[in-house]
Amino acid sequence: MNVEKYKIEELNEVTIKVHQRKFTALLDEIRDVDSVLKKLLDFNIAIPSWALGTGRTRFARFAGGGEPRSLEEKIEDIGLLHKLNQSSGAISLHIPWDIPKSPNDIRSLAAMHGIRFDAMNSNTFQDQPGQKHSYKFGSMQHVQSEVRKQAVDHNIDVINYGIELGSKSITVWLSDGSCFPGQLNFRRAFENTLESLSEVYKHLPSDWKMFVEYKAFEPNFYSTTVGDWGQSLLYASKLGEKAYTLVDLGHHLPNANIEQIVALLLMEGKLGGFHFNDSKYGDDDLTVGSVKPYQLFLIFNELIDGMDARGMSHSTDLGWMIDASHNVKDPLEDLIQSVEAIMIAYAQALLVDREQLRKAQEQNDTVMGQEILQKAFRTDVRPLVAEARLLSGGTLNPLQAFRTLKIRENLIKERGLKTISTGL
Ligand code: LRH
Ligand code: MN
Ligand code: MN
Description:
Keywords: Isomerase, Manganese, Metal-binding. With about 425 residues, the protein is of the alpha/beta class.
């Protein structure tokens, strides 16, 4: 299915007047609107291939129909999304869920849709058919060197696929750990993991980054060998300057202060990337901003503060990705909402009066500190985000466009009702 430019323009025509009125009203609240718009225009969020199907990170899957049946169709889906919002021009692949059989063709197809390849993801948390050694007791931490080598070789294969596609980073998420006290020697598990990661690190091209993703729990529930930002930072520091910590919002213990974690990782120059999602309990992988939008804003507030302090580019110096998937929404509609939530939180955080905030902090004016943050958070920036989309050729209202253009109905016609996207 293709969405022609004129269809987007026709749709925008219908609501442009209302939009302009709302945008003009908002201008009083924004100091340097051009610079804010430019930042929003430059900001892109990668879509993981596994978010395009329903329930891809959950136990049960209730397919909604018209799901992508191949890597090509996943790229097509992200192309559609990107046409509507002009903010999701990248895909993140998971190997072996998305083996590119012909990398050159895949690369050209993605380029046709204006999509680049974000971080590659390796998978040593599932046994694959025909695999020699099992990861039941871990992969890079494993007590047997043959198992560790198998995991290392897989990661090297993933880097090689990425090189062919033009990716510049690999995310390693290990589910290694233990379920019971006594199962594992923590120190040896750490040392084995570090040694395995160093083997992979040696194969990184000079312009690549390695992201070490941490997670406190699941599938191991007693200990996790890359369980928190401290452990991830230890690995990343020992590995070298191309290794960074990756923060997935769903991977913390309840009520963790993620904004503080982000601030300190940035201060150390060791924050590499983000997996956005939202949750009530743990790694629920829900739509970004659906449960704790204020937390998301506070995280962006620290991101901007920390990146500006280090002179980093908001758009290119960190890896931005969504990592979500669940059962009850249309995956593309969900991604539209997630991207929108990220843009809104980013725009709100750009409005924070940092000079005033610094003064309030220096005077221990707690009340004013809170007021300054909440003034920005409570600003309805949706017209600002919509204006950025309009300027970049996207739709004023992507969700409405998705429904009016009957995108899912068309995908079902093309692919069938009983499709389940490939992968997990
Ligand atoms: C683990 C995780 C990690 C995986 C993805 C499928 O929970 O967040 O990033 O690669 O889910
Ligand atoms: Mn993740
Ligand atoms: Mn996760």
